[in-house]
UniProtKB/TrEMBL annotation:
SMART domains: PKS_ER
Lineage per the UniProt record: Eukaryota, Metazoa, Chordata, Craniata, Vertebrata
Name used for this protein in its record: Enoyl-[acyl-carrier-protein] reductase, mitochondrial
Known catalytic reactions: (2E)-dodecenoyl-[ACP] + NADPH + H(+) = dodecanoyl-[ACP] + NADP(+); (2E)-hexenoyl-[ACP] + NADPH + H(+) = hexanoyl-[ACP] + NADP(+); (2E)-hexadecenoyl-[ACP] + NADPH + H(+) = hexadecanoyl-[ACP] + NADP(+); a 2,3-saturated acyl-[ACP] + NADP(+) = a (2E)-enoyl-[ACP] + NADPH + H(+)
Domain Enoyl reductase (ER): 53-381
Main subcellular localisation: mitochondrion
Organism, scientific name: Heterocephalus glaber (Naked mole rat)
Length: 383
């Protein structure tokens, strides 16, 4: 009775008191300790027992919530995106493959419900994201070890939090780790409308870098161009335009790029190399075209171009995989990276990619949409 009076007072209207009471009760339930007798039917997860077409092998199942150990954290998932790495993992052609059957999802954000007796630094209500790939975020709730989670501020938008730990991290590391770029320098990238591409545009702008952004031609190219320029892109051109001789005119008013970011491969990567400044670096972090990185499509021209590009221009070819970076740099460095990105989000310099929120039960629609060509909106499963 004291709690009600202290919160609302005797003169608070009855309907408002009832609404506030319901809200308070929901908060208390969310913050209460985990009970081993929780109804397992309320834990729903997207599970695959075999590798293959995600639309065919992924199923929505009820799972039993594991008992909360002393070093565990009970998390209620809030939102989790569908990334290309998730699709590749389900198909069985990714660098890390979990033991089957597995819950899908490498990324997402959840809220702590309860913590084990030996857990410090986390409390009910905190927001957390996966520390590494393969956690299995496509489920309504789960019990994870504390080491598998990283706390993040809860004052950033939900979509930004859900898409924080993969694409923006990849974009930031590629922009700062391979070339010592200074404000005014330029970067060229393909797949610029991807999640990484959109993050590159924004982080580059925050660092004072200028970007040339290559995309595939499509019916709504003008709409896409406007959206990328709103994010901070200086130039947006199509793959076909990149191959034209007049593209070199772009670099009359801006420095020739010293850094190229390649997520496509094939002819697209050849063109990125052609426009790199002498001594520049091309970093490959994906292969959407499923074609090798080459310097020409002709075997005879390949040798000549490879000599002129790699020898006479002293170009460097590098690869990047965030999971490997985390392995070498450790969790503390990754946490610092996350906090740096959260600062950019708070300052309005980094937003989530274009997203479409889809309820968990409509997962097949979301999986199908995520594999369509010319995808410009990331599918986010909401729990």
């Amino acid at each position: 009775m004291w709690v009600r009076c202290a919160l609302w007072g005797a003169r608070t209207p009855a309907p408002l008191r009832l609404g506030l009471l319901a809200s308070w009760q929901r908060h208390c339930r969310a913050a209460s300790s985990y009970s081993a007798s929780a109804d397992p039917s309320r834990v729903r997860a997207l599970v695959y027992g075999n590798h293959g077409d995600p639309v065919k092998v992924v199923e929505l199942k009820n799972l039993e919530l594991a008992a909360l150990g002393g070093s565990d954290v009970h998390v209620r998932m809030l939102a989790a995106p569908i990334n290309p790495s998730d699709i590749n993992m389900i198909q069985g052609n990714y660098g890390i493959l979990p033991k089957l059957p597995a819950v899908g999802g490498n990324e997402g954000v959840g809220q702590v419900v309860a913590v084990g007796s030996s857990v410090t630094g986390l409390k009910p209500g905190d927001w957390v994201i996966p520390a590494n790939a393969g956690l299995g975020t496509w489920q309504t709730e789960a019990v994870f070890s504390k080491e598998a989670l990283i706390e993040i501020p809860s004052d950033i938008p939900l979509q930004s939090a859900a898409t924080l730990s993969v694409n923006p991290c990849t974009a930031y590391r590629m922009l700062v780790d391979f070339e010592q770029l200074q404000p005014g320098d330029s970067v060229i990238q393909n797949a610029s409308n991807s999640g990484v591409g959109q993050a590159v545009i924004q982080i580059a702008a925050a660092l004072g870098l200028r970007t040339v952004n290559v995309v595939r031609d499509r019916p709504d190219i003008q709409k896409l161009t406007s959206r990328l320029k709103d994010l901070g892109a200086e130039h947006v051109i199509t793959e076909e335009e990149l191959r034209k001789p007049e593209t070199k005119n772009l670099f009359k008013d801006m420095p020739q790029p010293r850094l190229a970011l390649n997520c496509v491969g094939g002819k697209s990567s050849t063109e990125l190399l052609r426009h790199l400044a002498p001594g520049g670096t091309m970093v490959t972090y994906g292969g959407m075209a499923k074609q090798p990185v080459t310097a020409s499509v002709s075997p005879s021209m390949f040798l000549l171009c490879r000599q002129s590009l790699l020898i006479f221009k002293d170009l460097k070819l590098r690869g990047f995989w965030l999971s490997q970076w985390k392995k070498y740099h450790g969790s503390d460095e990754f946490k610092r990276l996350i906090l740096t990105l959260c600062d950019l989000i708070r300052q309005g310099q980094l937003t989530a990619p274009a997203c479409t929120e889809v309820p968990l039960q409509d997962y097949q629609r979301a999986l199908g949409a995520s594999m369509e060509p010319f995808v410009s909106s990331k599918q986010i499963l909401t729990m």
